Amino acid sequence: MPALFARGFAYSRLMRIPEHEIDITAVRAQGAGGQNVNKVSNAVHLRFDVRASSLPEAVKARLLARGDQRITREGVVVIKAQQSRSLEKNREDAIARLHELVAAAAHVPKARRATRPTRSSKRRRLEGKKRHSQLKAARRGVFE
User: Fold this and answer.
1) Rounded CA gap, 103 and 129, in Å?
2) Residue of 90, 45, 49, 44 whose CA lies nearest to 72
3) Ramachandran assignment for 8, one of left (phi > 0), alpha (psi -120 to 50 degrees), beta (any other)
4) Interval 129-142 mean pLDDT
5) What are the DSSP E strand ranges found in the chain?
6) How far, in Å, CA of 64 to CA of 139, rounded?
7) Closest to 27 measured CA to CA, from 90, 95, 75
8) Cα–Cα distance for residue pair 122/124, rounded to 1 Å
9) Average pLDDT of span 98-121
10) Neighbour-count burial of 92, counting CB atoms closer than 10 A to its CB (0-12 exposed, 13-18 middle, 19+ buried)
11) CB distance 79 to 98 below 8 Å
């Protein structure tokens, strides 16, 4: 399956993260909420262990190499969703955000090939520098 990722196939069409690899916990949301805020747990904490997951090794490596603050040193993705007042909507939002993160890591960056500037581009650059130098030289005072 990793060869398919290298060819540029979309992550979402190939695979989904199995439910048993995702740990979802309901927690109390932050912020104002009136009388109901201390009684109902509507926010969601999603935890996903990248190293123990069934993702291809290349995707795991790119995911762990990202400088994302949601990924701990132990390789666990932690996402907190509390936008909605509905537990189910927050759950769906957290899972969608996890899928977006994994899809971004599944994208194989195009390898950069080193190129050299053309002769004409070098000439144009040097002519521009010469023109700028002459302009600045013309601004100088008579007594310098």
Assistant:
1) 45
2) 49
3) left
4) 92
5) 22-27, 43-49, 76-81
6) 55
7) 90
8) 6
9) 91
10) middle
11) yes
pTM: 0.64
What does the buried/exposed string (b/e) look like for 21-38 if buried means 16 or more CB atoms within 10 Å of the residue's CB? ebebeeeebeeeeeeeee
pLDDT (tens digit per residue) in 2-34: 444 444 444 444 567 888 888 888 888 776 666
Q: For a pLDDT cut of 70, what percent of the chain falls above it?
A: 83
Residue with the two structure tokens 């399956």: 1
**Cα–Cα distance, 3 to 58 (Å, whole number):** 10
Q: What is the pLDDT of residues 47-92, one digit of tens each?
A: 999 888 888 888 889 888 888 888 889 989 999 998 888 889 999 9
If one counts every other C-beta atom within 10 angstroms of the C-beta of residue 108, the result is 15
DSSP 9-45: --HHHH----GGGEEEEEEPPPS--GGGTTT---EEE
Token pair 């969703």 is found at 81
